[in-house]
Write a structure and sequence with these properties.
four-stranded mixed sheet; Aldehyde Oxidoreductase, domain 3; three-stranded antiparallel sheet; alpha+beta; 40% strand
């Protein structure tokens, strides 16, 4: 099992890759919607406690690998201002079969929201993203 974690303020772009022996590649992209709490927005702003966030992400994926084995996973999460339509997180899981890959995607996102010190700090309503 190999895990790649990156928390960045840059636009997220994960190039495709293939891991030998993996018949399933499942991807989740969490994209900023144009509505927050029923109100139109232009962007969301995220903050993270970086060393702890990266550590907890790795721990979650290691735990999930015990239940749903996978060969490779990469998590890229964006911090700072993320405009509507852009990804705040991308998660790839490469596994032998789809059941494992889908299970890791779903369970990881539940645990990320609960356990990882990454927070939405504000919704930006104005068109100017400063």
């Amino acid at each position: 099992m190999n895990i790649e974690v990156q928390i960045t303020n840059s636009v997220l772009a994960l190039p495709p890759c293939h891991i030998p022996g993996c018949g399933a590649i499942a991807r989740f992209e969490g994209v900023v919607r144009g509505i927050e709490d029923g109100q139109p927005i232009a962007a969301l702003e995220y903050e993270a406690y970086l060393p702890m966030a990266e550590k907890v992400i790795r721990e979650i994926l290691t735990d999930l690998n015990e239940l749903h084995p996978f060969a490779f996973s990469r998590v890229h999460h964006r911090v700072g201002v993320v405009p509507v339509g852009e990804a705040a997180i991308i998660l790839d899981v490469h596994a032998s079969h789809r059941a494992e890959a889908f299970a890791v995607l779903s369970k990881f996102m539940d645990r990320l929201k609960r356990d990882v010190p990454i927070w939405k700090v504000r919704a930006i309503k104005e068109a100017r993203l400063s």
